[in-house]
């Protein structure tokens, strides 16, 4: 009977069990927004360690002195409900959503890497190249535009035509010109 009591009887009032996850949720949303877009998807080892330890650090803030199953379910349900409500609310309030989520940031424009934007986002050239490689680009030279979305995803648009395609077309044009010259020489004999 004590086991069931330990599992399901709350050590804290229900109102506190609901309020704690809400406070932590708001804190984390604001903190991650201030930390920047790269924290969301472009994780390096240090970023991953920070995000993993944050979850462990805030655990006690969410559950308090209550380790009951009921308390855990109330905390988890509260987090899910708050997130559901925030997402639904922001869906209907685009300006507020942009304020919270942030604006996309152009990292490459017209084939030129914008180092000032990389610096603002605390992203290295190597991290940008790695993101390009993951999307199938051999180098940044093949990219016309790269945008860091508010969710942390980098979207790339290829140059048209690609540098290799341009060189290939130039070589074919030269070959055609040489072929025409050879044909003209043969005809003149």
Give your account of this protein's structure.
The protein is of the alpha+beta class and 189 residues long. The chain has 2 domains: 2-101, no CATH class; 105-158, bsu07140 like domains (CRO Repressor, 2-Layer Sandwich). 66% of the residues lie in helices and 10% in strands. It is built from 9 helices and 4 strands; from the N terminus they run ααααααββααββα. A 4-stranded antiparallel sheet has the order 2-1-3-4. Helix 2 runs antiparallel to helix 4 (45-63) and helix 2 (14-35) crosses helix 5. The chain is rod-shaped and about 110 Å long. The protein starts with a helix and ends with a helix. The mean pLDDT is 85.
Number of strands: 4
- Mind describing the biggest β-sheet? 4 strands, antiparallel
Distance between the termini: 110 Å
Radius of gyration: 28 Å
Structural class: alpha+beta
- Contiguous low-pLDDT stretches (5 residues minimum) are none
Task: Quickly describe the structure.
By secondary structure, the chain is of the alpha+beta class.
Name a few traits of the molecule:
single chain; 189 residues; alpha+beta; 4-stranded antiparallel β-sheet; 9 helices; rod-shaped
SSE layout and pairing:
Blueprint: H1 2-8, H2 14-35, H3 38-41, H4 45-63, H5 69-91, H6 94-101, E1 105-109, E2 112-113, H7 115-120, H8 125-134, E3 143-148, E4 154-158, H9 163-188
Antiparallel strand pairs: 1-2, 1-3, 3-4
Helix pairs in contact: 2-4, 2-5
């Amino acid at each position: 009977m004590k086991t069931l009591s330990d599992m399901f009887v709350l050590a804290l009032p229900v109102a506190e069990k609901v309020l704690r996850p809400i406070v932590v949720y708001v804190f984390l949303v604001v903190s991650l927004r201030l930390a920047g877009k790269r924290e969301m998807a472009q994780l390096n080892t240090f970023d991953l360690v920070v995000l993993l330890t944050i979850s462990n650090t805030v655990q006690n803030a969410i559950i308090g002195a209550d380790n009951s199953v009921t308390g855990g379910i109330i905390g988890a349900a509260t987090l899910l409900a708050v997130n559901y409500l925030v997402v639904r609310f922001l869906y209907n309030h685009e300006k507020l959503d942009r304020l919270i989520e942030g604006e996309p940031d152009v990292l490459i424009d017209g084939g030129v890497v914008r180092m000032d934007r990389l610096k603002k986002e605390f992203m290295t050239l190597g991290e940008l190249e790695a993101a390009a490689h993951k999307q199938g680009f051999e180098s940044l030279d093949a990219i016309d535009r790269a945008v860091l979305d508010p969710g942390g995803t980098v979207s790339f648009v290829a140059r048209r035509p690609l540098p290799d395609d341009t060189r290939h077309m130039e070589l074919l044009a030269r070959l055609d010109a040489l072929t025409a010259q050879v044909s003209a020489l043969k005809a003149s004999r």
